[in-house]
Amino acid sequence: MDLATRLQKRWVIAAAGVVMQMALGAVYAWSVFRIPLTRAFGWSISEVTVTFTIAIFVLGLAAFGGGLWMRRAGPRTVALTAGVLYGLGVFLASFTRGRLWWLYGSYGVIAGVGLGLGYIVPVATLVKWFPDKRGLITGLAVAGFGTGALITAPIATRLIASVGVLQTFAILGAAYFVAVTGGALFMENPPEGYRPPGSDLDFRSQVTGRENRDLTPRSYTLADALRSWQWYGLWTLLLLNTTAGIAVISQAAPMFQEITSISAARAASIVGIISIANGAGRLLWAWLSDLVGRRAVFLAMFLLQAAIFWLLPSAHGLAVFSALTVAVLLCYGGGFGTMPAFAADYFGAEHVGSIYGLMLTAWGVAGVLGPTLMAAMRERSGGYDEGLRLIAGLMLVSAVIPLLVRPPAPRSG
Description:
Distance between the termini: 29 Å
Number of domains: 1
Helix content: over 70%
Oligomer: single chain
Largest sheet: 2 strands, antiparallel
CATH topology: Growth Hormone, Chain: A
CATH class: Mainly Alpha
Structural class: mainly alpha
Number of helices: 18
CATH architecture: Up-down Bundle
Radius of gyration: 20 Å
Number of strands: 2
Shape: globular
């Protein structure tokens, strides 16, 4: 296969990766299930939210396992397994019938494992096919995940109204299985020695935006990366940025209903629409990070979110509240779009599947911290104001970390 054909093939693989991620990203539409489940079975807000929390926590752990497994089995096997588990887990949730533990085990654990295995495959695979467009392609690879709720939220809402919440799980589970396994068939690593034109951009140019061809990145193993303080610095950046955004995502539909006084159907539609920002942010901030640097992007996102979360409680108008929420989701998506390239910059692309896969445990921890905090504050105070202001303060403090993080010393090549 000549170079031109390989360059065309990588875009086909990228498209398949986006399809996979859109199906996986449907998990972000969870908030549309919250009210129907609480009404159907008498569960509390916190009890229903735990399902989403478990799924995201398990996702982070499974992504690490998937990154390690990919090195032995290849991306296609891992992706196919992801499709089976994700589809099966959501489908089995249709047999919940008032058993909360069943919902946790099916949608939370089984589907969560599928989510993690599936999420890491396009990210780790495409960063190898696109060493010349590292920030752009990792943003594109996860943009689909961020926009998954755009399709799922309105569809799920209509299905719930017509066939009920449990039957909706069955229908969606089957659809997810087809989409993820279909995209998985295209996943493969590039051949040995593959180097597209422009891929000789060095480590320092990727980190700072300035080209210097005298340096090359050292290829870190997972063990090497864990011995560096930089890995923990990047993990913390991802944790804090994700905590803020996922706290809003987990309560988005009911938050819109309470603060702006709109109907459930309209809130679900808006949740789907604003999910575009989640996907767009993954692409926009990742692209921008290629130009101005990854640290500058995280600094800007933290400062912006500090201001937004402080303003949200007083934004009772639908237009203003929607605009501010869109900005939060842009930043939330930006963390996921930028961090894979950040990790590849610092530690090399060869082992990025396991290095970034383990880093995604930050997502799992944030998936517990953010939704739990927001649900608890809502139940304690009867509103969202305290939780939103608390996150504003957290974001302001977090802005210090991008100023401290520095890359490992490059090795002369």
